[in-house]
């Protein structure tokens, strides 16, 4: 319970997201009783690292301008959003600690340590009123409820009959060892006596993706390290990345960073990020019975994943469509990448892409910056097809019409 917190926010922003109905149904009447520019208690969260990192739901903090965290003992701290992910409904916030203060954190359960029928507890700190505990059993590990008419990016929800009300949303679902097995989320207002949670396996995977040097600082490390338990296992290494060049391999277990055993995943990533002047970081790994030490030097993604790589792969010259540029072209409200050049006899030319078209998405993912698009292309092999979604400008006399289009470009 000391790791469970209340999340309250100020100046809630009206946005459209997958949780609009959930937000309105559960919190609408509560908001109507509050005055503007006041604090709103939206849910719960759980501390996962002693430095004050808190896991919660995206729909709890995703629309807030300012966030406060109330601890189990009643102390209140302002917090900063670090990373959020709307598709999985998870967010990570950081308490603004005073001095060197440490916080009580919760241990993670093993990914698949789940038994149907086992007793589970849903913990929370609803509306800042104090700790809340409800008991139930794990009744399913494979539920896939839809929100806003679509299935979210959660392969297998945990379902329990432990009561999970909106105030507990974002709080931990734990086993009887007090280990975190899921992040609670209320998604079906019509359901009676049913609660859902995002399994810790999916939370750990998304945390490893979100809390990375690439996402946070635009620095290329190139390895995925499992978040959660203290064992820092490498689960993937990108070809040609700084991690691969240093000798890191899939399956390695990182036991020391710069000669010191890291406390956990969060600290490990922060040590990578804090390397002064991007000096090499010494990683000691356990590989079977052997222990090896290697030096990895992070590289700015913009020096690798840039317009030059895009041109090499597709024959496209690309320019980021800034707000000012879009306004000047009469494209206000559209985000994407402007095609500034098409190389003759290139894959882009074969796909009939033209100067002035706007690439808005690729492989179903919105694209708005050169680095993200280049990284997407780099994941494809020569000969692979990449579907691009476009906005095309068509001149009709003095008027310009905008049409949507798609094109399949073969990567070279």
Write the layout of secondary structure elements.
Elements: E1 4-12, H1 20-32, E2 39-49, E3 53-56, H2 58-61, E4 64-70, E5 76-85, E6 90-95, E7 119-124, E8 132-143, E9 146-147, E10 150-151, E11 157-160, E12 172-174, E13 180-185, E14 195-199, H3 200-210, H4 213-217, E15 219-220, E16 223-225, E17 232-237, H5 242-246, E18 253-257, H6 265-273, E19 281-287, E20 290-296, E21 299-300, H7 307-314, E22 316-320, H8 323-328, E23 337-342, H9 347-350, E24 358-362, E25 365-366, H10 370-378, E26 385-396, E27 399-410
Antiparallel strand pairs: 1-2, 1-4, 2-3, 3-6, 4-5, 5-6, 7-8, 7-12, 8-11, 9-10, 11-14, 12-13, 13-14, 15-21, 16-17, 17-18, 18-19, 19-20, 22-23, 23-24, 24-25, 24-26, 26-27
Helix pairs in contact: 7-10
Give a quick set of tags describing it.
six-stranded antiparallel barrel, alpha+beta, Thrombin, subunit H, 412 residues
